[in-house]
Amino acid sequence: MELVEWQVKHLLHDYDLYLYGIDEMEKNRWRIETNNGVFLLEKTGEHPTQLYFVASWLHYLYTQGVKSVVPFSVTKYGEPYIATKYGMYTLQPWIDETEAIWHVPEWEAKVLSEVGRIHQVSIQAQVRWRGYAPVSLEQIRQRWKNSIAQITLIAEVAEQNHGAEVFEKMVKRSIEQVLHFAEYAVQELSEAAVRLEGRHLMRALCHGRIHRRNIIVGATGAFYITRFERANLDTPVRDLAIFFRRYAPRCEWSIRRGRKWLAAYEEENPLTEEERLLLSCYLLFPERLAHVARTYLNTAEGDREHNVQQWTQTWQKHLRLLSEMHQFALAIKQK
What we know:
The structure is a single chain. By secondary structure, this protein is α+β, with helices and mostly antiparallel strands. Helices cover about 55% and strands about 15% of the residues. It has helices at about 1-15, 50-65, 105-125, 135-160, 165-195, 235-245, 255-265, 275-285, 285-300, 300-305, 310-320, 320-330, and strands at about 20-25, 30-35, 35-45, 80-85, 85-95, 205, 215, 225, 230-235. A hairpin with a 2-residue loop joins strand 2 and strand 3. The radius of gyration is 22 Å and the shape is globular.
């Protein structure tokens, strides 16, 4: 801890702050008590250009009245980060969490309403700082095709290996069903790309990782959306698709709940017909199954046995919900 404290004192000098106390909250994240309040110090691997992009947008959003974001603190030299031989660091005001977000009634709709506000303010802004590039439809299509190839590979291994693992056997048994939905999604995305060619799609500041771990409920009950470090300008559909993929399965892909969530979002940022079409396409692909297959293949063979049960359960759950997911994706396209 001595080395860390010495580093922190050195870093805080650039903010004209004096260290009173330090607590490591998790890897590369510290709660810092200073002579001028409490802060979150974070070590990041993001590129300086990306950090400038994020810092500029957080500051802009905050000045436009979006208080759910927490801007970076700026050094006495005007920099939103500090570069040292130990790495890159950012500093933000500390927000005390009063309760877990999932204890808040209807938290999903409330969060999506705030995401919609962020999207709307960033769409209306005339400024365009440069950050990570948006993901193209062709990149998404290629990623889906790669996922199909990975799922097929696992099934083929099970076919050739009589001593195949439980997970491999399950993938083999369900391969036709999974490929039916996955290939349909690729086809729909390809057709959507043709329909959208030449049309202007709005670009909003997309967080890219909207989930419960990145949302804090503060002392007044206000929400704070954190960890924007990988945000970029992209179609707002990206954040919506990520959120729905993560949380719609928890309510069995309920169309009623999904429409309620989307309505809360659209109170702040109404979607165009083209954006609804794109959102529907994104949700047609069995992303959760693809993620399990990808994780399985990226895990060393000797380490797989420790995770087989979890992978098998996750596969079973999302396989069972494929039809509901498909109906949800088609329904969400309609107003």
